[in-house]
From TrEMBL:
SMART domains registered for this protein in UniProt: LU
Lineage: Eukaryota, Metazoa, Chordata, Craniata, Vertebrata
Main location: membrane
RNA-binding as UniProt keyword: no
Species of provenance: Geotrypetes seraphini (Gaboon caecilian)
Keywords: Cell membrane, Glycoprotein, Membrane, Signal, Transmembrane, Transmembrane helix
A Pfam family hit: Toxin_TOLIP
Domain UPAR/Ly6 stretches: 21-108
Matches recorded under PANTHER family: PROTEIN QUIVER, UPAR/LY6 DOMAIN-CONTAINING PROTEIN
Signal peptide boundaries: 1-20
Name of the protein described by the UniProt record: Prostate stem cell antigen-like
Compartments where found: Cell membrane
GO cellular component, one term: plasma membrane
TM annotation in the entry: 116-138
Domain of life: Eukaryota
């Protein structure tokens, strides 16, 4: 019976609900430093994009990062103001507002995630073999 319960526990560890998109967001609506826009946020299920807006005027930059249901990458220039929106669709891809800049960090996260998945898979296999072994010993 213990083996059966351990097998159920291992199976439960391998199952997890679909994760929502994770984006970096800012402490307030508009920030002057990227370091204040690195809050990891779980987006709602409607949000399909991480969106970053940079507004540059007179050599000053304002930043806003958020989850967005819709997003179009664009740049608008008017007089001495430049506003650019960038969009991406992978977890924490808006580190600097550019998906390419987050690529290396994301690769490292995937490597760690894969290693954990392999360990859980091996644990599950070991428990399952023990479970079936105990069933066979009960039948003998």
């Amino acid at each position: 019976m213990k083996t059966f319960l351990l097998s159920l526990l291992a199976a439960a560890l391998c199952l997890h609900p679909a994760d929502s998109l994770k984006c970096y967001t800012c402490e307030s609506a508009i920030e002057l430093k990227n370091s204040k826009c690195l809050i990891e946020t779980n987006c709602t299920s409607e949000a399909m994009y991480c969106m970053t807006t940079h507004a540059i005027a007179h050599e000053e930059t304002a930043i806003n990062k958020r989850c967005a249901a819709e997003c179009t990458s664009r740049t608008v220039v008017a007089e001495e103001l430049t506003v650019s929106d960038s969009c991406c669709q992978t977890d924490l891809c808006n580190f600097n507002g550019d998906e390419k800049e987050a690529g290396e960090r994301k690769r490292k996260e995937v490597e760690v995630s894969a290693a954990v998945s392999v360990r859980i898979g091996v644990l599950t296999l070991v428990i399952a073999v023990g479970f079936f072994g105990s069933l066979l010993s009960l039948e003998l």
